[in-house]
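Lest this sound abstract, we think one record worth quoting, the chain in one-letter code, the fold tokenised, each line plainly labelled:

>
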Amino acid sequence: MPTVLPQELVDYILDFLHTSVPSLTSSSLVCHAWLPTTRYHLFRTPVLYQVSFGRSPKDNTAPFLHLLDSPLCTFRHTIQGCVLNIQRKTVLRRCVDALAKHATLTGTLLITHWLGDIDLTNDLQIPHKFSSIQSFVYSTLGDTWSGNLAQLIVSLPHLESLSIFTNIRKDMHGTLPIQGQQQQVVLPNLRKLRLRMSNPSELLHWMLLLPGYTPQIETLDIIVYNNISTGWGLVGALAPFLVANSNTLKCLSLKLQYNLDLQLHHGSEHKVIQSLDIGSLLNLRHLTLQTHDIDALCQTATSFLDGRPHALELLTLNLVPVISREWSYDETHTRARLREYLDQKYTSKVMLLHIHVLCPIHGHVPSDEDKFVKAQNLLVDILPVWENMGKLRVGTVQGEQWQTDSLEKINKTIWGCPTVPFTRVLTRIGTL
């Protein structure tokens, strides 16, 4: 291949390769420093994975590390973040060391792993090597928390966004200890908090009692995995956490996601919350609510709107009209309760109302199609007054909305796939 190629041909080849990291990193266009500056964005947040799913192992770390260490590499300075989906600790350490040597990460660092004994702070020295990152995403598919997770969180001074995704059933008491008296300020820039876990209450409680931390969250996005189909699950510490952030909170999303096999931890001091008062959030602009309990959903929304002095920009209600253990719709009850709470009411308190009906997919085609048809029927003339005023948007969401297995099955459809662009990955797990 000649050293000079027409720009149009280079762009065409790179556009063809950009969704496949192994193909891109092994391309001579990259390895021989022919990558044009217009394509540097392809390496702003590379996705590295080393995973073994049965007989289909996937590993793109070796060619990327070879490229990164090459004197011909021209895009090191463009790397802003990285996704590390690594099974082996030695490979993870090698990737961390190489990134720390050749790049200064200031964007998103996403670490997902199966290793229960991994120490991100003392062993991998994440806070020391990536002290400038602004967004940290921690996703574990194992059964135990990473050691010193609390120390890692408070050791990132520039952190603006924190996301924790896990299906661990164990308490976090040993992982998130209440620290001693601290004089220094911690997490001064933290504005976004996204949690996907069975019991977020412990983490929220820990943050409230963290010495040196002043709550200033602007975006709070929580999904609670629970085997309880009523109320709001284990969010006991959410109410005081919302009060602590009431002056700054602008976007709140609270979703209860049913998990049939998830057992509540016996002896836990946190109880399932049946009703939730969010009336103190006067600066809130966007509110998203989701639970199988239509009464809890509507009561929380209407009680919030009752005490609000000015209109909410966007209210999103995700309806899950399914009796989870029987997998059958109860659309009649859902429609009746929604109309009772909202029809001809609160139209002056909300600028735009989105109503989504979630349609779980279980692989049985006739049953799935029947649920989808019923979901569409549920939305027909559901709130006529809102619709006539042009303030209502409705739609259905098809997909696996709850999981009877562990998160590993879900993540297998996300990670380790070389044809999935990074932006689509982050959009699906909710970090964009």
Summary: The mean pLDDT is 77. The longest strand covers residues 219-226. Residues 217-407 form one domain.
